[in-house]
Structure formats: structure tokens, C-alpha cells
Amino acid sequence: MNIILLGPPGAGKGTQARFLVEERGMTQLSTGDMLREAKDSGTEMGKIVADVMARGDLVTDEIVIGLIREKIAGGGSGFIFDGFPRTLAQADALGALMAETGQTLDAVIEMQVDDEVLVSRITARSTCGDCGEVYNDITKPIPADGKCSTCGGTTFKRRADDNAESLRTRLMAYYKQTSPLIGYYHAKGKLKSVDGLGEIDAVKAAIAGALG
Ligand code: AMP
């Protein structure tokens, strides 16, 4: 099964993708993670995307389509596309790539969340520097002993673009460029919408229900 997790920044796509990886053995393909890795390791591409990402704008379709092509060209299945596609051109490209590699896209899970919740989730979030476990200062704080509950790691990171100004740009990019994908996948009969506002476990159950 190959699926897309679709939703604005802070909707919980990364958190839910991690559950699907753990419980169903799926493979998470997060273009945001791939771009941050390129930026941190200082590759040419990383240098090109750094400013765009810091502002909260979208990097070019060509770059992200290239990243995804590399990942799925080797075959395999059980992909969770997290943060991709974000434009109609990316969605068309993904359709073509899947057809080329003999795969199908089974479902697009739209995670619906209010903007106010997004702002408070994003400005409160951090992740374990070792395993990527996601924390939230209010709803899921870093354990009092300062150790990640999943791997015991002691370094935690906040994303440079998780600030109010960049978030405004990221939300606008979502509404202008990404939200048309809701109609696109609805028309293809692939869209399943879940309430992303509830507790993490309730959202997890809703996604499991949508996937059957
Ligand atoms: P994310 O981790 O998904 O929130 O992505 C972080 C940033 O990476 C975004 O704000 C964009 O600048 C860039 N990015 C990630 N995925 C894409 C994509 N599919 N298309 C364009 N830009 C992307």
C-alpha cells in the first residue's frame, strides 16, 4: 500500500507517519527531512534550498520530484509520502512515477486541523536529535530526566523554520499551492479526510479506519 499524508504544517503528518512505519513496516518519504539533510550536510542543493526553506516558501518542483524519483526508482512499496506532493505539478509527476514503476497510489489521507492549533503546535514542538521522536512543550513534554522516551537520546532540536513569521508563509503556501490537491485527489476517488485535532491516539485510530 502506498499513501500520501496531506495537511498543513503542524497537522501531525510526521508523527502519524512514524506510527505507520513502526506498526505496518511502511517507508516514510519526507521531502522536508531530505531537504534538511541536504542543507545540514552542505551539498550544492542544500545551499540552494536553505534560504527558501528558512522563509517558508516551497522549493522548486524539479528539486523535490528529483528526490522522490531517486527514492522510488529502486522499487519497493509501502511508501508514505509525507509533505509531498505539495503542488499540482508534483502530484502529476508522482502519478507518472508510480505508473512507470508499476505501482499504485492507494489513498490520500487529508489531516484537517484549525490554523490556531497549528500555530501553537508548531511553536511548541521539538524532536529528538537521535531518533526524530516528536515532542511538544505542552501536550508531550521531553521527559523530566532529559532523556528521549524512545531511544534515550539527550539532544533535542527545534526547527529553524518553526517560528511565527516563517509559519505564516508556510500556511499561505499550503492554502495557495497545496490545498488544491484535496480536490484533485477527491476527483480521483483517493481522498479520505480525518480529523487531525484530537489526541494523537484518536487520530491514529481514524487513520487506521480510513486505511481499512
Ligand atoms: P516540511 O518538513 O514538510 O514542513 O518541509 C519543510 C520545508 O521544506 C518547506 O517549508 C519547504 O520549504 C520545503 N519542502 C518540503 N517538501 C516540499 C515539497 N514537496 N515541495 C516544495 N518544498 C518542499
Quote the average pLDDT: 94
Radius of gyration: 17 Å
Q: Give helix % range.
A: 40-55%
SSE order, as H and E? EHEHHHEHEHEEEHHEH
Strand order of the largest sheet: 2-3-1-4-8
Bound molecules: adenosine monophosphate
Kindly, what is the distance between the CA atoms of the first and last residues, rounded to a whole number of angstroms?
A: 11 Å
**Main beta sheet:** 5 strands, parallel
Segments where pLDDT lies below 50 for 5+ residues? none
Total of DSSP H or I helical runs spanning 4+ residues: 9
Number of strands: 8
Q: Report the oligomer.
A: single chain
Overall, the morphology is globular
Q: What is the strand content?
A: 15-25%
| Sheet/helix structural class | alpha/beta
List keywords for this structure.
212 residues; three-stranded antiparallel beta sheet; alpha/beta; binds adenosine monophosphate; 8 strands
Overview of the structural elements:
This protein is of the alpha/beta class and 212 residues long. The protein is built from nine helices and eight strands. It has helices spanning 13-24, 31-40, 44-55, 61-73, 88-100, 115-123, 164-178, 180-187, 200-211, and strands spanning 3-6, 27-30, 79-82, 107-112, 125-128, 134-136, 156-157, 191-195. The chain has a five-stranded parallel sheet, with helices on both faces. Strands 6-5-7 form a three-stranded antiparallel sheet. A hairpin with a 5-residue loop joins β5 (125-128) and β6 (134-136). α2 (31-40) crosses α3 (44-55) and α4 runs parallel beside α5. The longest helix has 15 residues, at 164-178.
